[in-house]
Amino acid sequence: MQPGILYGISVGTGDPELITLKGLRLLQQAPVVAFPAGVDKKPGIAQQIVSGWLKPEQQTLSLHFPYVRDERLLLSAWQEAARQVWQYLQQGQDVAFACEGDVSFFSTFTYLAQTLQQLYSEAIVETVPGVCSPMAAASALKIPLTIRDRSLVILPAIYSLKELKTVLDWADVVVLLKVSSVYRQVWQVLRERNLLQSSWIIERASFPDQVIYSNLNHYPQLKLSYFSLLLIQVIDNQQSMINADF
Amino acid sequence: MQPGILYGISVGTGDPELITLKGLRLLQQAPVVAFPAGVDKKPGIAQQIVSGWLKPEQQTLSLHFPYVRDERLLLSAWQEAARQVWQYLQQGQDVAFACEGDVSFFSTFTYLAQTLQQLYSEAIVETVPGVCSPMAAASALKIPLTIRDRSLVILPAIYSLKELKTVLDWADVVVLLKVSSVYRQVWQVLRERNLLQSSWIIERASFPDQVIYSNLNHYPQLKLSYFSLLLIQVIDNQQSMINADF
Fold first, then answer.
1. Where in chain A do CATH 3.30.950.10 domains reside?
2. Nearest to A153 among B21, B151, B159 (CB)
3. Which 3 state secondary structure label does DSSP give B231?
4. What ipTM is given for this predicted complex?
5. pTM (2 decimals)?
6. Rounded CA separation A152/B173 (Å)
7. What is the CATH number of domain B5-128?
8. Does position A25 have pLDDT exceeding 60, yes or no?
9. How far apart are CA A14 and CA B114, in angstroms?
10. A215 contacts: CB under 8 Å, gap ≥ 6
């Protein structure tokens, strides 16, 4: 029997309407829909996003991906998830895995897909791209993320302020993902460089409870949720859009 | 009368199914659909992508954005486009502007929207995020773009090989957009750093005529089209996914 296909489907950043037509089509065609399990028995974020799109006859599969750094625990969780998915695939059933944001952009799906293919070399994986958080944030802020010859740097989290400073020395636009744990230190760096006025924080971009903080001069401290993104325009937009000469 | 709204709608990178549900809804609701004019009287790329979604009663508006660097010509074209759009908005009609890729990511829409708001301060602009080319490319290549603590740098074009070398010194993943004109020089840099095997070229990601070049050792020279993207994984994926210690 031909095995089923594991589809990694980008479901966007929060608003259920930010899934693509292709993503929705493949999501609704699959007999099994998987997603990362939530914490404290609450539905996970991807599950919340797609819940309105699922049909009663679709089976759901909640996969456990622990939020830990221990490589051994992670590998064991990925292997268990891959085994659960393979149970369906080997019976010829497709599995659609719902990924918050874009499936190629810091996604849990990557570990599931790579582990699956290591354990079962005949497994077939397809992915559907989608809306990632920097794009959702820029639309929410009503500013362009990048224009013309601007360079864009995306850092998943700041482990080194030295690296941030290096990046600010040459990059035009910088996005820091999951900035909550280092916000105070980053704020100091932005103040030193006079960048607080051209920086924004977006929490839960495109969700109904989305929050935006502009002009960070007023916010030396913020209690931010996990999905908080900091956008820094190192060059002023208006200034560089039109050359001052004319 | 309340003016209409200018919607900047991300239509994805080529495959018409890569538009979001929200983008399609707003595109089809607008009485007027605008897009950048094509060259040589051929339809433009965004127009080609959305043509199948438009209804007979929708009016189309082709706006001229010249491919030049002359700031004066550009400004004049943006102002003319803004004036054309405003003719509809001031009559209370919404205008949906179709943008290839994501509307905040190196998009012509930015210039139109900013010029419109400079000329007509009462103009209202909304944007819908979408699939940008690096995400479409990663899905096409079936590799993750970024995982874990990887940094991602996106350069719109290389004007300085020195900058590329600086970036390769510290970044984990590098994407070069519109690489066609500098491919030979970039190839040399990648060879010096032994990165040709972990680099890919994608032309026209998600279009039916999409082309992928893997293992660039074989391609010191390539005649590439304008929408060619180079993806460089400076760290090997498999190596870093699972720690070699266990």
1. 133-241
2. B151
3. strand
4. 0.94
5. 0.94
6. 12
7. 3.40.1010.10
8. yes
9. 27
10. A196, A197
